[in-house]
Amino acid sequence: MIHSTAEVQTKNIGKNTYVWQHTIILKEAVIGNNCNINCNVFIENDVVIGDDVTIKPGVQLWDGLRVANKVFIGPNVTFTNDIVPRSKKFPSSFVKTIINIGASIGANATIIAGNEIGAYAFIGAGSLICKNVPPNTVWYGNPARHRGYITDKGLLLDMELKDKKGIKQKLNND
User: What is the pLDDT of residues 115-160, one digit of tens each?
Assistant: First the structure.
């Protein structure tokens, strides 16, 4: 479903993907199946979004962004794609940023270009990510720091891999 006020130029949108009000998607963007692209989102050309992705309102996805399956991007998350931006001067190519499977990025977080968010990682609201984030880790703050772990199923753990009851857990189903 594409809302009547959305401007969708791409034909590369998967089945059962919803695009809500006042969203703009440029012609070369690729969006997977079962995604929810909320209102007031802008998606540039060189962006690839996997399946089962949720993008909340007020997010801009710039050239060079790669979003894997099952990623959650909270409201007003900011991505960059140019390390040294200048008015009317564009780089020959934009820096790639990768968000891996199952990662969640909280509202108002900023992700600096060229970084990779690991599988199932969790970025807290308002955080500034200025380096790579390993899989299954929890980061928050400005600049964000490693504060704990998270399982593939979303159970938050402390730095010793213990849940809130003090029981040591495994990070994934391996």
Answer: 999 999 999 999 999 999 999 999 999 999 999 999 999 999 999 9
Structural element, H or E, at residue 138: strand 137-141
Alpha carbons 153 and 4: distance in angstroms, whole number: 36
Each as own residue / partner, the long-range contacts of residues 28-33 (CB below 8 Å, 24 or more positions apart, any chain) are 29/61, 32/69
State the Cα–Cα distance between residues 62 and 173, nearest whole angstrom: 33
C-beta of residue 105 within 8 angstroms of C-beta of residue 99: yes
Q: What is the DSSP letter of 46?
A: S
Burial of 57 (0-12, 13-18, 19+ CB in 10 A): middle
For residue 68, which of 28, 113, 118 has the smallest C-alpha distance?
118
